[in-house]
């Protein structure tokens, strides 16, 4: 018998949800697929009676939902973040199918990391700045002539794919890791670690006038893509930040 909730399941993050009923329906969709980790980022109305009503028995998922003020706080401890997107955006992200996304999320969680699947607002989805915090994006291949999916329906589709990944035989699961030294230095860096790294990198590029009057946002996006794709571990980030600090000291920019 499978446990009703699997520790290899990722968290589901809903950003800026406008209608409380959608939160309840999303909780119901999650529970039917054995998912119970719900994080709500700045919902407009929650707790709310409509959310309770449409949860239809998934009250425990709602009761355990965590509230966060912004996406950065919701994914600070995550090692893999995949954002949902209904259309191509100006943010160059690896694009995954629902099945690929589910498999990557389960693998990351099973390997000892923390994985999150992020859904945006009902009308506008995730903002570009929020997508930049993701390692990849996932799009449901809906009918191009009528691709409007309710938030809860999108959660249901992707929760189903996660369920399939959780129930899959051993080939889907990650290989056992090789023995490593004590500590977590060989696990991928968390999102909070990466954001501190990106802030230090941006500071260094400003210090050496790398941009020379050009828009730093373009280089910043490309650097994000490069390092999020590489998934460095904490030790590698410390080495890189040590290099940054030495460059700043040698140039007399820092004590």
Give the integer mean of the pLDDT values: 90
Let me know the CATH homologous superfamily of the largest domain.
Answer: SPOUT methyltransferase, trefoil knot domain
**Rg (C-alpha, Å):** 20 Å
CATH arch. level architecture of the largest domain: 3-Layer(aba) Sandwich
Give the overall shape, derived from the CA principal axes.
elongated
Overall number of strands: 7
Query: In CATH terms, what is the fold-level topology of the largest domain?
Result: Alpha/beta knot
Query: How would you write the strand order of the largest sheet?
Result: 3-2-1-6-4-7-5
By DSSP (H or I, 4+ residues per run), the number of helices equals 10
Cα separation of the termini: 60 Å
Strand content: 5-15%
The number of domains is 2
What is the helix fraction of residues, given as a range? 40-55%
Low-confidence regions: 171-183
Largest sheet: 7 strands, parallel
**Structural class designation:** alpha/beta
Regarding CATH, which class of the largest domain?
Alpha Beta
Secondary-structure element order, as H and E? EHEHHEHEEHEHEHHHH
Task: Record the SSE blueprint.
Blueprint: E1 11-15, H1 20-32, E2 38-41, H2 49-55, H3 59-63, E3 66-68, H4 71-74, E4 80-84, E5 95-96, H5 98-110, E6 115-119, H6 128-131, E7 136-138, H7 151-167, H8 191-207, H9 216-230, H10 234-250
Parallel strand pairs: 1-2, 1-6, 2-3, 4-6, 4-7, 5-7
Helix pairs in contact: 1-2, 1-7, 5-7, 8-10
């Amino acid at each position: 018998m499978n446990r009703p909730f699997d520790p290899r399941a990722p968290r589901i993050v809903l950003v800026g949800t406008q209608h409380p009923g959608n939160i309840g329906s999303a909780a119901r969709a999650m529970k039917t697929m054995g998912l119970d980790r719900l994080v709500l980022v700045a919902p407009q109305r929650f707790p709310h009676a409509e959310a309770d009503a449409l949860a239809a028995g998934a009250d425990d998922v709602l009761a355990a939902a965590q509230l966060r003020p912004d996406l950065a706080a919701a994914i600070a401890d995550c090692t893999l973040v995949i954002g949902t997107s209904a259309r191509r955006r100006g943010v160059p992200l690896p694009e995954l199918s629902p099945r690929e996304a589910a498999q990557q999320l389960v693998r990351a969680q099973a390997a000892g990391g923390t994985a999150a699947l992020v859904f945006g607002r009902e009308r506008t989805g995730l903002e570009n700045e929020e997508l930049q915090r993701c390692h990849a994006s996932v799009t449901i291949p809906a009918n191009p002539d009528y691709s409007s999916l309710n938030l809860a329906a999108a959660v249901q589709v992707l929760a189903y794919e996660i369920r399939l990944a959780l129930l899959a035989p051993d080939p889907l699961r990650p290989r056992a890791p090789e023995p490593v030294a004590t500590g977590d230095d060989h696990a991928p860096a968390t999102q909070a670690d990466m954001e501190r790294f990106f802030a230090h990198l941006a500071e260094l590029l400003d210090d050496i006038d790398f941009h020379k009057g050009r828009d730093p946002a373009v280089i910043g996006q490309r650097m994000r893509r490069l390092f999020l794709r590489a998934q460095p571990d904490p030790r590698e980030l410390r080495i890189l930040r040590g290099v940054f600090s030495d460059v700043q000291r040698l140039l007399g920019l820092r004590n």
